[in-house]
Specification:
Distance between the termini: 70 Å
Helix content: 10-25%
Shape: globular
Strand content: 25-35%
CATH superfamily of the largest domain: Calycin beta-barrel core domain
CATH class of the largest domain: Mainly Beta
Order of helices and strands: HHEEEHHEEEEEEEEEE
Number of strands: 13
CATH topology of the largest domain: Lipocalin
Strand order of the largest sheet: 3-4-5-6-7-8-11-12-13
Structural class: alpha+beta
């Protein structure tokens, strides 16, 4: 008699458990989730730099922004600037994580899809910690653990307690992504700040070399729009 015949309920339960392990959040199996791999061009999106629902602390941070002192001019480029810049990004996809390889500053962002939570008491970093899940065909990403920074060359601050939630929904038959970015930061904003943008897949496009030159005494931008 085989082990399956000796204890059919046990083996049936193991089979169900194994099947469940191959399913991702949102009820989709790995073979059913959208294929996001490739190089994508990104729109900037409309950021309400001056008209955002700032708290007093947020307004002070925005009013204190000095573009000639932009950390970008020292080649220190925070998550917000990477996320909002209209420069290409390459997505490398597997079952447990996504890699977003940005042309801007050659940053590599890991979005974990394996069910892990954000680490506790981890020191904040420029790019923070990102975890994702599938909501049907929409990729939902949450990032926190960020060092305080600014979203745009004109300002748009976020604090070290900010969370950023992105929803990437395929449109146009998968040729584009409708991206909703929500900045949740009660320290700087009275309500969540929502910005929408489009990413378009560009077959044949490759990530180019990004040359950042330190210019501590000059205003302006280093390749960012």
């Amino acid at each position: 008699m085989t082990p399956q015949q000796q204890n059919p309920q046990l083996h049936r339960g193991i089979a169900v458990w194994l099947a469940g392990c191959s399913m991702l959040a949102g009820g989709l199996s790995w073979g059913q989730v959208p294929d996001l791999s490739g190089v994508w061009d990104q729109e900037r999106g409309q950021w309400p730099v001056n008209d955002a629902p700032y708290t007093a602390a947020g307004r002070a941070a925005q009013d204190g922004w000095v573009q000639d002192e932009d950390p970008v001019l020292l080649c220190t480029i925070h998550f917000g600037r990477i996320l909002s810049a209209p420069l290409p990004v390459e997505i490398v996809q597997d079952e447990e994580r996504l890699l977003f390889v940005y042309e801007y500053d050659h940053q590599v962002r890991r979005i974990w899809l394996d069910g892990r939570s954000h680490p506790q008491d981890e020191a904040p970093t420029l790019m923070g910690h990102s975890i994702g899940r599938w909501d049907d065909s929409t990729l939902v990403v949450e990032t926190q653990g960020l060092k305080a920074g600014y979203m745009r060359p004109e300002g748009q601050p976020y604090s070290g307690n900010a969370r950023v939630i992105e929803r990437h929904t395929p449109i146009d038959g998968g040729a584009a992504l409708a991206v909703e970015i929500t900045l949740v930061d009660p320290e700087y904003y009275r309500q969540p700040l929502v910005v929408n943008r489009i990413m378009r897949r560009v077959p044949g496009l490759e990530i180019a070399e990004y040359n950042c030159t330190v210019r501590p005494h000059l205003g302006g931008e280093l390749g960012e729009g």
